[in-house]
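for the recovery benchmark. tokens below, seq after
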């Protein structure tokens, strides 16, 4: 191991522990901030212990700025613990500022190994917060008895139950990639096994060769009494007999092939289970509970509500739902955007809520659950909802839509204007919103995670954002389809329904093909309308699409016409080659067991391209596998 690698490993160890202490500090301080200064002694000691441990850890690794900030935070907590300072809003803000600064310093260490942020102003603020109210406090609620002391014994008394080993993410990524290659190899073995199954008929052929030899012996007897034609028949009989003997001998060597193939089938079946188990176990190593994400959201709601002068309660459920660590990390910013918008734009001011017959305190609910192979996260607020007419007016004002287009836009489509880049209805730019950025970034991030984002909103009763994500970034549950002889894969998280086209009414609306499903019209998009396929233009009948795959939600459903449905399959996702990255509507590629490349469609992205730019036709052919890192 080089010195550089050793240093990287040490920093990784520091970061792992530092993140744990920061999460504990944030979680406990958030809970105490809601206690109106009535802080239980044992929780104060828990805060002190985390700050003290983080201070010692930073000192050991030589991170001076983190050490100074945690030292001042520890001093504040000592004063609170000893009853010399009453917890007050200014003190809480100072503590949160200290946690934020340490989080920022930790991010700097993660990116470059060094601290850069200026901490002088914060250190002065922390010292000032301690001096602001230095009166002894008689009413500090305690749990009775001695203050809790630090202990290395886990809370449940079972040290072995909580044993963990920290593993760097890049090592986990390599393991996931290697097991992904193992899955591909398993698929190839399945294919080879299926191709060898005809050899099981070797026994039948051996019996047929024996019958052939008996027939040739009869031909020899017939040649002996055939007169003038006898010599010719004998020569033919000798030639056929030679070939029959070779055939019989060769098939004799294959007499045991049936048993071998049965053993191969059994071995493949056992390997299938073992590889599946290994791959699942490796993927589970990267899975974390969503609670690690949700805990950070409490602070977002609290701080945003304080800035905009509203009273908002956050209710969370489903925090034990598991998701890939990389997905969880990427999910934080989208959820922060959605929650800030819910508090700032969705929840009404207390007086307005009271006038509307609602409780003065608004509620935002965040819930997570498993739906099939997908993870679903819902964010629901009981606020004013999204007014489609107000959005349409703003869209016309900004020149996004014409007046005629706005008049023809459905309420659901109008509400989805909030995802348009640069779109905002805020009257002024504030600390929270109004810059015209946010929800478009949310949608782009969710799509980059191969997920979907649905919106349901009702004026006066609130809005619900539904995020559906794959649990893993390396395996894609897919629906395989065929169009013009080319196979594509669709992420199952995007598929809403499959319908048979011949049974549906089809129309042309404003020059676009449209189908009607249960009295709901929706655009019908076809890959050949924008992509050029191998062999296109050659003579021959075209196959009429038999099915349509529906995706989207509510009134924003779209249908993709397909020639054939080929079934479901879990694919190991690979990045697109540089030649294909410019093709709109493609999300990635996968190498299947037979070595063929399957292109993975982004159905929403393709539909947006197809509906917005009909007849722009980049060429799509089945490429050779691209070199990809494993």
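predicted aa per position
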């Amino acid at each position: 191991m080089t010195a550089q690698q050793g240093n990287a490993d040490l920093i990784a160890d520091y970061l792992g522990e530092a993140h744990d202490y920061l999460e504990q500090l944030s979680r406990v301080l958030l809970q105490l901030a809601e206690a109106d200064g009535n802080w239980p002694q044992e929780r104060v000691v828990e805060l002190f212990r985390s700050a003290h441990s983080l201070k010692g850890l930073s000192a050991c690794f030589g991170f001076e700025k983190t050490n100074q900030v945690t030292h001042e935070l520890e001093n504040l907590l000592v004063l609170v613990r000893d009853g010399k300072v009453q917890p007050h809003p200014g003190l809480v803000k100072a503590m949160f500022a200290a946690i934020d600064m340490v989080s920022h310093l930790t991010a700097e260490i993660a990116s470059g190994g060094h601290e850069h942020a200026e901490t002088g102003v914060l250190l002065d603020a922390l010292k000032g917060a301690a001096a602001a109210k230095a009166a002894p406090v008689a009413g500090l609620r305690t749990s009775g008895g001695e203050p809790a002391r630090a202990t290395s014994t886990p809370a449940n008394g079972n040290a072995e139950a909580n044993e963990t080993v920290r593993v760097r993410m890049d090592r986990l990524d390599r393991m996931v990639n290697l097991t992904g290659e193992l899955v591909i190899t398993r698929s190839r073995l399945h294919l080879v096994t299926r191709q060898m199954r005809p050899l099981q008929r070797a026994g039948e052929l051996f019996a047929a060769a024996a019958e052939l030899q008996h027939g040739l012996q009869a031909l020899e007897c017939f040649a002996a009494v055939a007169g003038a034609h006898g010599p010719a028949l004998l020569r033919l009989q000798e030639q056929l007999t030679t070939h029959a003997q070779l055939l019989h001998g060769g098939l004799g060597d294959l007499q045991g092939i049936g048993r071998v193939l049965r053993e191969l089938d059994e071995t493949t079946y056992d390997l299938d289970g073992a590889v599946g188990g290994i791959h699942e176990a490796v993927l589970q190593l990267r899975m974390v509970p969503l609670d690690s994400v949700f805990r950070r959201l409490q602070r977002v709601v609290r701080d945003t509500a304080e800035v905009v002068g509203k009273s908002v309660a956050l209710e969370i459920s489903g925090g034990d739902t598991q998701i890939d660590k990389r997905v969880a990390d990427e999910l934080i910013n989208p959820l922060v955007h959605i929650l800030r918008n819910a508090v700032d734009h969705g929840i009404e001011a207390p007086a307005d809520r009271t006038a509307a017959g609602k409780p003065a305190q608004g509620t935002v609910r965040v819930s997570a659950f498993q739906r099939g192979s997908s993870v679903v996260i819902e964010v629901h607020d009981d606020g004013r909802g999204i007014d489609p007419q107000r959005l349409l007016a703003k869209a016309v004002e900004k020149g996004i839509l014409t007046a005629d287009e706005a008049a023809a836009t459905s309420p659901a489509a109008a509400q989805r204007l909030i995802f348009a880049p640069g779109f905002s209805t805020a009257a002024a730019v504030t600390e929270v919103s109004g810059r015209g950025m946010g929800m478009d970034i949310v949608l782009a991030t969710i799509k980059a995670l191969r997920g979907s984002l649905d919106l349901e909103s009702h004026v006066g009763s609130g809005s619900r954002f539904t995020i559906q994500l794959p649990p893993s970034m390396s395996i894609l549950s897919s629906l395989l389809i065929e169009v013009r002889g080319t196979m594509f894969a669709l992420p199952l998280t995007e598929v809403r329904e499959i319908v048979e086209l011949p049974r549906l009414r089809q129309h042309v609306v404003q020059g676009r093909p449209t189908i009607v499903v249960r009295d709901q019209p929706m655009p019908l998009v076809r890959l050949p309308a924008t992509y050029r396929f191998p062999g296109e233009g050659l003579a021959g009948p075209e196959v009429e699409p038999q099915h349509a795959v529906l995706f989207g939600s509510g009134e924003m459903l779209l249908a993709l016409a397909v020639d054939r449905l080929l079934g479901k399959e879990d694919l190991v996702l690979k990045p697109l080659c540089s030649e294909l990255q410019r093709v709109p509507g493609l999300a990635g590629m996968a190498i299947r067991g037979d070595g063929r490349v399957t292109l993975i469609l982004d159905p929403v992205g393709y539909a947006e391209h197809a509906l917005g730019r009909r007849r722009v036709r980049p060429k799509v052919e089945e490429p050779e596998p691209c070199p990809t890192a494993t």
